[in-house]
């Protein structure tokens, strides 16, 4: 049994030299539009026929644009902790990129703690432990310190 930690989805975030997580997005070479999750082609801008996107680090901080609280466990096959704990989901706007990134909010912060316009910062949190005993982590938002 390994006790290692792995991203739940490869390639969505990385960790910088100081151990801080940042998201990886993609940017169109042609028009500069950003997209998350990252992809290598097919610019999301309907007015652009760019087909070559570069992987770029995204801002670690953004503004809370919207949020919700999930009080029900997702149906199978989506992994969920047992017993299920309600969690908040935040839509955070990255000003520089003009992008809104959805993510879970860290444990202990629920909708009552959140307010549109708050500054949020990126972190990671465990999502589930897979069949090999590997802790799978995802990007998450927390209230910026
Ligand atoms: Zn483009």
TrEMBL record:
Highest taxon, organism lineage: Bacteria
SUPFAM superfamilies: Nucleic acid-binding proteins
Domain ChsH2 C-terminal OB-fold, residue spans: 56-123
Domain ChsH2 rubredoxin-like zinc ribbon stretches: 22-53
InterPro entries, A to Z: ChsH2_C, ChsH2_Znr, NA-bd_OB-fold, Thioester_dehydratase-like
Protein name: DUF35 domain-containing protein
């Amino acid at each position: 049994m390994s006790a290692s930690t792995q991203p739940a989805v490869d390639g969505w975030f990385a960790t910088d030299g100081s151990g801080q997580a940042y998201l990886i997005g993609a940017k169109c070479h042609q028009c500069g539009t950003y997209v998350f999750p990252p992809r290598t082609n097919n610019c999301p801008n309907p007015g652009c026929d760019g087909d070559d996107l570069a992987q770029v680090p995204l801002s670690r901080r953004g503004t809370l644009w919207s949020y919700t609280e999930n009080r029900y466990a997702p149906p199978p096959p989506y992994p969920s902790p047992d017993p299920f704990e309600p969690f908040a989901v935040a839509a955070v706007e990255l000003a520089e990129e003009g992008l809104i990134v959805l993510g879970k909010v860290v444990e202990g912060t629920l909708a009552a703690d959140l307010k549109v316009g708050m500054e949020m910062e990126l972190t990671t949190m465990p999502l589930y432990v897979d069949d090999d005993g590997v802790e799978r982590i995802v990007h998450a938002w927390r209230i910026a310190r």
